[in-house]
Amino acid sequence: MIKIEINSLKEVRQNRGLTQQALADLIGVSRKRIYLFEVGEAKPVPNEKQKLCIALHLTAEELEESLKLVKGKKQKVKSNVVTFRATDELYEKIVENARQSNMKIGTYVAKTYEGGQIKVIEGLPEFTQELRRIGVNLNQLTKLSHVGKIRNPDLKPIQNTINEIYIKLNRMLSD
């Protein structure tokens, strides 16, 4: 089996003994454009790819692989911008739903478009506040039990309250 090692664009350029400026001059772009290719912030257009392949003695596949490798950094992924027109009524509905779900408008639209359903649960802050209280109570009972101040505390009421909250949340989510 033949093992082919793929290097990042920067490593390939350096292995060929070229500076960013020298490579830029060879393919007819700026030095900064070469830098952007190397750090993954820009992708070469087809004619630049062809010239890079020739200058660096790479196949198109090898170039693609080397462009994917960015040492020490994650490649930045540019998100696409989508715009659309909406009636005032639809826009207000989107804004209100995004506000209720505690999301930015763009995030809300993207999540709902991806097929995810966003359920806004009224009264959720009260649920979380009650759960925090239960957690504090459990913590206090645990401390008291560890220092020997209480023995065998009755946790049945707490268990019942947690079960009620669980059942109510599941009903809300299934509606």
From TrEMBL:
Recorded GO MF terms: DNA binding
InterPro entries in UniProt: Cro/C1-type_HTH, Lambda_DNA-bd_dom_sf, NikA-like
HTH cro/C1-type domain ranges (all copies): 9-63
Protein name: HTH cro/C1-type domain-containing protein
Species annotation: Acetobacterium woodii (strain ATCC 29683 / DSM 1030 / JCM 2381 / KCTC 1655 / WB1)
